[in-house]
């Protein structure tokens, strides 16, 4: 059954233990799951696929199903719950996924992450772009361990609903992989409180996710030397990139 989630903006949507505004590092550590089954995951599928000539990237054929189907099949057994983000137009919805609509349609992946974080019921939420069909739970497990290690080392780091004027370097709101010096925010993990920060940024007309991540303390984890991670972070934006990936992977499946 598909559930359409559109949270009421009048209600606070942050856990009680950081409703007052900040969390100590040790409280955040308690919230980092030892297993991915304690964390939600959001598949971002709200893009317009302009560079793919209008073909929705989540509905491209992979090894044995569409990109969205295969991401869902790989993530559902591992994560607590899997959400699927759309902007205004809905596309294919695999069984068991909860659909979340953007509150700021047309504002890019930042709007999808904002809506997902507000809908999620876990303290940390992983994100997977539907155009990254090779993503596996192992990447998120690695990021969660890196985040835990960073918080163990820096006990003074705080996170929570902070004002835009406060010193952002003292807060950590997520963790993203970095490959060849480039951040991959659509394969990251974010603290639920980051949803409120994204809401304010979007309301202020700031839609660039990379800019927002640089403004706030988001842990950047190099993964160049971890076997298989570069391949996992492959994303498909054009018909040429798609055909090249199909050729390399030997995919023969065709969508019905």
Mean pLDDT: 80
What CATH calls the topology is: Spore Coat Polysaccharide Biosynthesis Protein SpsA, Chain A
SSE pattern, N- to C-terminal = EHEHEEHEHEEEHHEHH
Low-pLDDT segments, ≥5 res: 1-26, 155-167
Main CATH class: Alpha Beta
CATH superfamily: Spore Coat Polysaccharide Biosynthesis Protein SpsA, Chain A
Largest sheet: 9 strands, mixed
Give a quick precis of the structure.
The chain is α/β, with parallel strands linked by helices. About 30% of the residues lie in helices and about 15% in strands.
Overview of the structural elements:
By secondary structure, the chain is an alpha/beta fold. The protein has a single domain (19-249), classed as Spore Coat Polysaccharide Biosynthesis Protein SpsA, Chain A (Alpha-Beta Complex), CATH 3.90.550. Helix content is 30%, strand content 15%. The chain has eight helices and nine strands. The protein has helices at 25-31, 67-75, 109-119, 137-153, 194-203, 209-215, 229-232, 239-249; strands spanning 4-5, 40-44, 82-86, 98-101, 124-129, 174-179, 182-183, 189-191, 218-222. Strands 1, 2, 3, 4, 5, 6, 7, 8 and 9 form a nine-stranded mixed beta sheet that branches. The longest helix has 17 residues, at 137-153.
